[in-house]
Amino acid sequence: MPLDTPRTEPQPERLTAHEARQRLEHARNTRLTQLRAIGETAQTQEDHLMSSQKDALRRALTEIDEAFARIDGGTYGTCLACSTTIPAERLEILPYTRHCVACQRRSM
Fold it and tell me: What CATH superfamily is the domain 17-107?
């Protein structure tokens, strides 16, 4: 297919709960692997950068757990700030996001 040909396949507006859970499981497993790798390295040398990386990974894991709770509660994919639907494309990139792009920008 040429690059200038538009895509005709429909894009879902929302991820299914199953798709969301799969993406979150992948994100969780990736972060846990990274955390273990840093932990093994940190045993030989502890520094500020590694400590910061571990903190960031732990925050991401907490956000992933919160996203699982939103799936269970039926609010996954809805912005916590403005209650609009978070686009599926954003959830594909950052499956544990709590906000749409506009609200995320406002919070920065």
Answer: DksA, coiled-coil domain (1.20.120.910)
pLDDT in tens, 30-81: 999 999 988 776 555 567 778 889 999 999 999 999 999 999 999 999 999 9
Domain boundaries, the chain: 17-107
DSSP per-residue letters across the chain: --TTSPP-S---SS--HHHHHHHHHHHHHHHHHHHHHHHHHHTT---HHHHHHHHHHHHHHHHHHHHHHHHHHT-TTB-TTT-PBPPHHHHHHSTT--S-HHHHHHH-
